[in-house]
């Protein structure tokens, strides 16, 4: 991960936030290339979810909604983590993470039965703070920072960021920054049905910022307190929910493969009963094998009719769909594929990173799918004279209408290729002396480093063919 984090800073993908003031822990800003990468991720998601289909429409709901939304959804009462403090070190931990960490240490020490017994008590203890506290004391769990067991009681900590709307800070002005975009979709169910005349089954898709006061953010941009989500709520007849749950698990898994993620690092994992959120009847995670282990990329859940019923009850407004053919009201079930944009962008970065021997040097290359790469094609004049810069600018201007482009004039061609490899640009075009005679250019491929002569007029078509046919090459191990 260190190499990727350093490349991200150096080349302008991701910067530590508030850096000139010493930083704001676990918070990041996306730089010029990072913002392009995220835009590609969002475009690819929107293309697959909205533009390529007739049964899903988009929405962009507010971040700050009525606090009653979060009471109805269960987030005010239930969206919390159990915390415990160590009085000696003044460190705060998630109590369940402490137990899991201790179990992992026992397992590593060969005490498998003891580890299993400890984990078996965890689900029940999570429902009862006193029991969780007892479990930590009885297992003799020590604070990793101080080595003491000087623990406070376990307390519940709500993950929603609280703020106040308007000039007065009182209990009447409390509002929350949304912890998921999904609720904005549920509360607009009737508006969308009436405006867009949607019929079951149909979906509402949304991309936007969410906020969670995470206790243990970390692993670069994997878990942060402010992040973008890409969520789609698929409304269907209750009896069809199992069919659509299976469909969306498969569709979403394929989306990552279609965009070049290595299949051997991707898996779909069904949640165990005790992992399910309070609203879910079934859930599966698309997981990726990061350098720090297998972790969730996206969750696909069967949320049943829980949310629509909760909002109907709390608001007094019926949230259902009228089936004119059968002359009946249906409260739809909801299948939800919920992904994180920052986490997906980070996955593309991690997955694309490659090093290979090139002569005496090591070539660093990001093997992004051409549809995900921040820059699709870079154009170089071989030298900064004899009309080559002008010709390169003309070609770049033409390509810019269809592709994301860059132009580079300085340093040797070899250095310029390396710089583009390092940011994942799949194609480079070089304008040289022959270009001025016969209007052909060199088209160089990032992955194979092969070069071909192509007529400048045919460049766009040649790029289209290559992008459509792109396949990730087998990585050669670094010698
Ligand atoms: N509406 C359902 C929901 O929000 P979730 O599993 O809590 O489900 C969905 O979040 C996705 O949002 C996750 O799979 C992850 O990609 C992303 N996500 C959640 N919390 C995050 C965080 N703190 N930092 C970055 N991404 C996060």
List the helices and strands and how they pair.
Blueprint: H1 2-11, E1 14-16, E2 28-30, H2 32-51, E3 56-58, H3 67-73, H4 75-78, E4 80-85, E5 92-94, H5 95-108, H6 112-126, H7 129-138, E6 155-158, E7 162-164, E8 174-176, H8 182-186, H9 189-196, E9 202-211, E10 226-236, H10 241-258, E11 266-270, E12 282-290, E13 293-304, H11 306-315, E14 321-323, E15 328-330, E16 333-340, H12 341-352, E17 353-358, E18 361-366, E19 377-381, H13 388-400, E20 405-407, H14 413-423, E21 427-431, H15 433-438, E22 440-445, E23 451-455, H16 459-469
Parallel strand pairs: 3-9, 19-20, 19-21
Antiparallel strand pairs: 1-2, 4-5, 4-6, 7-8, 9-10, 10-16, 11-12, 12-13, 13-16, 14-15, 17-18, 21-22, 22-23
Helix pairs in contact: 2-12, 3-11, 5-6, 5-7, 6-7
The structure holds glycyl-adenosine-5'-phosphate.
Number of helices: 16
Mean pLDDT: 94
The oligomeric status of these chains comes to single chain
Roughly how much helix do the residues carry, as a percent range?
25-40%
Alpha-carbon distance between the termini?
20 Å
What is bound: which ligands? Answer: glycyl-adenosine-5'-phosphate
As a percent range, the share of strand residues is 25-35%
Summary keywords:
479 residues; seven-stranded mixed beta sheet; 16 helices; alpha+beta; 23 strands
Describe the structure.
- With 479 residues, the chain is of the alpha+beta class.
- It contains 16 helices and 23 strands.
- The strands form seven sheets. A seven-stranded mixed sheet has the order 3-9-10-16-13-12-11.
- A hairpin with a 5-residue loop joins strand 22 and strand 23 (451-455).
- It is globular and about 80 Å long.
- The chain binds glycyl-adenosine-5'-phosphate (GAP).
- Glycyl-adenosine-5'-phosphate (GAP) binds at residues 180, 182, 212, 214, 223-224, 227, 229, 231, 296-299, 336, 338-340, 342-343.
